[in-house]
Design brief:
There is one protein chain. The chain is α/β, with parallel strands linked by helices and 227 residues long. It has a single domain, classed as Rossmann fold (3-Layer(aba) Sandwich). The protein contains 8 helices and 7 strands; from the N terminus they run ααβαβββαβααβααβ. A 7-stranded mixed sheet has the order 3-2-1-4-5-7-6, with helices on both faces. Helix 2 packs parallel to helix 3. It is globular, with a radius of gyration of 18 Å. Its EC number is 2.1.1.197. GO terms for molecular function: malonyl-CoA methyltransferase activity. It comes from Campylobacter geochelonis. Keywords: Methyltransferase, Transferase.
Length: 227
């Protein structure tokens, strides 16, 4: 993750914006008024802006591992979500395009469960197995993406599933340079190792795409209610 260096995230986060839009639509269908909302991984505010415009609430707290300029005017809790002491009796915990970075989803699920009010809502989107497959098929490296069924089953252990959506987004680019810049600006490179993009690798990667410069984002949106 290199989100601190992704200064133009909002401009290039095509898939992340679509995913956040879809997540908020699903939340509103379930419930639109909350007392306390806690957002995990607020960053530059892609999801936060949609929360503000779509939901009614009394208090909003933003979390991330570092404090972005956008977050400066909000109540925040900075740090790793797995180690922080979270507020209690929350009505909505929401997150978009973040949970794929968290390996221990069981620990996260249990922690969020304890922080919610009875009948509180957990709403999140995360990228799944098959995301950026065009890149990982060349580098042979990837994040350890989970599949949709595995994610749903994990959260169904403690939550009632109110809504689920599995979709994919295909982002297309005019050149390999444009594609790589998109990855750079969104802080995501799908690599879990020491792959270096040399001049030779660039030419090989360009040939690998064979003129079809596209990236697939597969995601799940899940709306859950505390049992």
């Amino acid at each position: 993750m290199k989100f601190q260096s992704a200064k133009r995230y909002d401009e290039f986060a095509y898939a992340q914006k679509i995913v956040a839009d879809e997540l908020l639509k699903m939340v509103v269908k379930s419930r639109s008024e909350f007392a306390q909302i806690y957002e995990i991984g607020a960053g530059s505010g892609v999801l936060t802006r949609r929360v503000i415009s779509s939901l009614k609430y009394d208090e909003l707290v933003l979390n991330d591992i570092y404090k972005s300029d956008f977050m400066a005017s909000f109540q925040t809790q900075i740090g790793d979500i797995l180690t922080l002491n979270l507020p209690q009796k929350l009505d909505l915990i929401i997150s978009s395009s973040v949970f794929q970075w968290i390996e221990n989803l069981d620990k996260l699920r249990d922690k969020l469960y304890l922080s919610l009010n009875n009948d509180g809502i957990l709403a999140f989107s995360m990228f799944c197995d098959g995301t950026l497959q065009e890149l990982s098929s060349f580098t042979k490296q990837s994040l350890k993406y989970k599949n949709n069924s595995e994610i749903k089953e994990k959260f169904a252990v403690k939550f009632e599933i109110l809504g689920v959506k599995n979709e994919e987004i295909i982002a297309k680019f005019s050149s390999l340079k444009e594609l790589l810049n998109h990855l750079k600006q969104t802080g995501v490179n799908n690599l879990n190792g020491n792959f270096k993009l040399t001049k030779e690798n660039f030419k090989l990667l360009e040939a690998h795409f064979d003129g079809n410069f596209a990236l697939t984002y597969k995601y799940i949106n899940l709306i859950c209610k505390k049992r």
